[in-house]
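Quick log. Single chain, no ligands specified.
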Amino acid sequence: MEMSSDAIPSTGNGEAAEFSLMRSALLAHLNHIVRDRDPYLASQGHFYVREYVREQLAQWGTVETHGFAVRGNWHQNLILNLPGQANRPPILIGAHYDAVPGTPGADDNASGVAVLLELARIFAAKPARYSLRLVAFDMEEYGLFGSAAYAHELKQQNQSLRLMISLEMLGYCDRSPQSQHYPAFLQYLYPDRGDFIALVGNVQTTLDLLRLQRQIRSVGKVGCEWLPAGKRGMIVPVTRSSDHASFWDKGYPAMMITDTAFLRNPHYHKSSDRLETLDLDFMTGVCTGLAAGIRSL
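-> predicted structure:
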């Protein structure tokens, strides 16, 4: 496991202790989730992870099941609603729990699911201003099927969202020069080291991108960059590569939080996407900053 002492807060024993506890909790989740879990070719692992996520979320409230069919097969999104301090449309935070065949999917997307579960614990203990809807999506790797089915249902029911946040690969960091790659022309605008977390949102989320960036940098002590994606991400198609795109397509304010996947991580969709390749201190800083950022909205 790669370690980075730069990520550990040094402003006080209490803050460092909280960081250490969160890091331990994330590692515990990863130890359960990181395994082959393709829904068809590794169905036992897929079932184990789904039920682990359900069990963890159920500590904080009733877990609802949203079922959907893909080519005659039944799949499940898992949903936990946490109350907020005011009666307003919820912030939906999602992460997909499936993985491509032949990979244990440590970064993609065990890292996102682990952070989702830790956010559930944090906001069950102390509610945010907005109510939160935490959703573990299935079948992202086959074409965003779980999020597309759920976004379609929300739109049909005329349900509003304050914001949708997709947690997509949060654990890989490379501080070497030239370790970060970009679609054409973006390399002139952003750092060449893969040591930051990226926020990618549609136009409606611009102010939220700025607020979250500020909190991730100041509280999480992690570099953070943001990118506005116009025309539902069609201008830079790689920005559509996660469940937030299903919500863009339905007109919701939505963003992806990501370590940029294959633009940085050489283990993307490979058998080498293993726990030991993750930078757990980086990931813990992202989780810390994101929790503060959600409270600031």
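The radius of gyration is 18 Å.
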